[in-house]
Design goal:
The complex is a heterodimer of chains A (189) and B (160).
Chain A (H helix, E strand, L loop, with lengths): L2 H10 L20 H29 L4 H31 L7 H36 L5 H42 L3
Chain B lengths: L1 H5 L1 H11 L3 H18 L9 H14 L30 H12 L4 H11 L4 H8 L3 H21 L5
Helix pairs in contact in B: 2-3, 2-4, 2-6, 3-4, 6-8, 7-8
Classes of the chains: A mainly alpha (189), B mainly alpha (160).
């Protein structure tokens, strides 16, 4: 066996005689990292919208006194502003990612860069909104400033570790492999 | 899609190179078909259709992670990989291809792309444009990949 005989066998291979599954492509069931990310972003957006409505309802039903109304209202405003800002960033990313017609090096570089950047934005988004969510819930239920502050601190710590672990579990392996391919392509022999 | 049909053999071969399991090969083929469909607007006709298709197919195959086993980069040409004492000669074309695919699955993703384009008879310049590296880099990497592939085939017990 040598490369010439292999090339002959390769050229004679009748793999192309099988019809392509053009009509069987399920548009929603795709398994690339880009598609996975897009699907997760859509789900995230829907769950955030539902969560937001739920949170406002909880807050409106349980106000205890004037100053908690003030704190909760500020928190809701901040939460809304941050959510809008981050989701506009995610939308731009959603539209930009996934060009498959570039050269391999450019494509991998683009996907790895955008993926890493948006993972960091996603983490930042969650680190900032979860303490606000806790503030709204506790603020609308408790009148004790100490309870609110403790809840805020605990939420901050938990969200930090939880979302770090979440993105590492969800995208860590793929991102590490993309980076490895990128480094491999960057290296001039 | 008629143009894709005309090059369908390329797609099947890419799927066989990147996935060893028939179910995963089928999934990857569907994924490539989908991405070809979605990316078709970007084909402007200033390059060959096959070159554009290679780009889309490789970019899809490389970011396709489903059910993929951790086989890449596990092979090394380090001396502890013992060559068998006796190497078998293979003359049957189908058997040669079977051994070839078995060996190719031990290459990393970039090496797979290189060896595929070499088997397709692409020039160094064309390979460089598809992968986005220099022609010199292609020459060096391709030589190294071919040596690695030869060595893997020998460790599988076949002469090369």
């Amino acid at each position: 066996m040598n490369f010439d005989s292999l090339k002959g066998a390769w050229a004679d291979d009748k793999a192309g005689d099988i019809p392509l599954p053009i009509r069987k492509v399920p548009l929603s069931e795709t398994h690339s990292i880009v598609s996975k990310l897009r699907r997760n972003m859509k789900r995230e957006f829907i769950s955030q919208a539902i969560g937001f409505v739920f949170l406002i309802l909880v807050a409106l039903r349980s106000f205890k006194n004037t100053w908690s109304v003030f704190i909760v209202s500020i928190a809701i405003f901040l939460l809304l502003a941050q959510t809008m800002y981050y989701f506009s960033r995610f939308y731009l990313f959603y539209k930009a990612i996934g060009r498959y017609d570039l050269s391999l090096r450019k494509s991998i570089y683009h996907i790895a860069y955008e993926l890493e950047l948006n993972i960091e934005i996603y983490k930042g988004f969650n680190y900032s909104i979860w303490p606000l969510v806790v503030l709204i819930i506790i603020g609308s239920m408790s009148t004790s400033l100490l309870v609110i502050l403790i809840g805020l601190g605990v939420a901050q710590i938990i969200s930090f570790f939880l979302f770090k672990l979440y993105v590492r579990t969800r995208y860590g392996k793929q991102l590490a492999e993309l980076k490895k391919i990128m480094e491999d392509l960057e290296t001039e022999e | 899609m008629q143009q894709v049909e005309a090059h369908s053999g390329i797609l099947y071969k890419i799927c066989r190179i990147y996935q060893d399991n028939p179910a995963d090969q089928h999934d990857l083929l569907q994924e490539i078909m989908l991405q070809l469909w979605l990316s078709y607007d970007s084909f402007r006709g200033d390059s060959q259709f096959s070159s554009w298709m290679y780009r889309v197919a490789f970019n899809t195959a490389i970011v396709f992670f489903k059910k993929e086993k951790r086989r890449q980069n596990t092979f090394t040409t380090a001396p502890y990989h013992q060559l068998p004492e006796e190497l078998h000669t293979v003359s049957d074309q189908d058997e040669q291809l079977r051994i070839f695919y078995m060996a190719v699955h031990q290459l990393n993703k970039v090496e797979k792309a290189l060896i595929f384009l070499f088997m397709e008879g692409q020039s160094g310049k064309e390979i460089a444009a598809i992968l986005g590296i220099t022609p010199l880099n292609v020459r060096v990497r391709l030589g190294r990949t071919k040596d690695k592939l030869k060595y893997i085939i020998k460790t599988l017990g076949y002469e090369f």
